[in-house]
Amino acid sequence: METRIRGTLLGDTKPSDVIVRGGVVAAVTPAGRGRVDAGSRDTIIGPTLFDIQVNGVRGIDLQTDHVTPEDVRAITGMLAGTGVSQWVPTLVTGGAKTMEQACRVIAEALQDRTVARAVPGVHVEGPYISPMDGPRGAHPLKHVRPPSVREFDRLNKAADGKILYVTLAPEQKGAVAFIKAMVRRGVTVSLGHHNADARTIETAIDAGARLSTHLGNGLASMIHRHENPLWPQLADDRLTAAFIADLQHLPSAVLKSFVRAKGAERVVLTSDCVHIAGLKPGAYEMAGQPVELLPTGRICLSGTDLLAGSSLMLLQGVVNAARVTDLTLEQAFASASTIPAKLFGVRRRFALPRAGTKADFVAFDVVEDTARVRAVFVNGQLQAGS
Length: 386
Prior knowledge:
Layout: E1 2-9, E2 16-21, E3 24-30, E4 38-46, E5 49-54, E6 56-57, E7 60-61, H1 69-80, E8 84-92, H2 96-109, H3 113-118, E9 122-125, H4 149-158, E10 163-168, H5 175-185, E11 188-191, H6 198-207, E12 211-212, H7 230-235, E13 240-244, H8 252-262, E14 267-270, E15 282-286, E16 289-293, E17 299-301, H9 314-324, H10 329-335, H11 338-344, E18 361-367, E19 370-378, E20 381-385
Parallel strand pairs: 1-4, 5-8, 8-9, 9-10, 10-11, 11-12, 12-13, 13-14
Antiparallel strand pairs: 1-2, 2-3, 4-18, 6-7, 15-16, 16-17, 18-19, 19-20
Helix pairs in contact: 1-2, 2-4, 9-10
């Protein structure tokens, strides 16, 4: 079977036709006048993406007690259809038994070859975070606790050794020893949901922390203009920073400034999407609380303007970042593919289609600043097409 996708390869100026036969790119030629199955001269063709923080999508919530391996497989397919070929299931602060069970479910799902190709590991966001209102965000206070290597080892055993990274508050008692223990285990440590001062942040980085989780969020609403957790993380080049580029978690000017501070090579774009992402606007429930998904994509606690998660799809975040920051579209793609892959030691090729390689790319249009997928190939399989 032959599929012909037309579009301009990322970084090029003239359109091409990408011809796929049997899951392999047979040729990439200048755009002709013949039939195409998807795309146009205005379509953009780029590599697939890597989302390092996914809590759920389209009604499937990884945080519930009844999540199944089939749910993890379903999310893998749903994300592939949006251009995401790699993703990290994220488990937030919860009871020890609940978190262990979720790790077991993901480990079981990883027995599926398609899931194993797409999921390099698990992100444990908490429970070792700040108990303070504000930095804690929506994480339940009753389950917040100090770092425990013993508990982590139980979680990692349940996950079949697949925990990729942990988010913690560096001011928590025992955090430095915990960070060093994670480094010895080959687990990346990320700073998030914290209220640490500059010295504590520096100590955590010296111990081996290498990432900031959704920097600018998971933070008190009112902070000192100079002495706050933001500036030390922005200033230290040893930290890569993850940003939610929906332009609601971080307004355009804030995102632009943060990206400038970190530099393109130390920026990771993520969706941090929740199970409401991809659903129709309306009233929903999340973590036992009523929330609203507005037509703008903003998820709020019902009756307020307080954010209650992200509905972002990563491709849209890439387009947003390229539009409102100094990142080129190529750099924005790298921030959502090769940069996180390098950070986590994930061996996967994120590249433009080339003759003789398996088809692995996303073709999309940008209409009124909105990304619209025209076709996606992941590992030679057509995931979506118009």
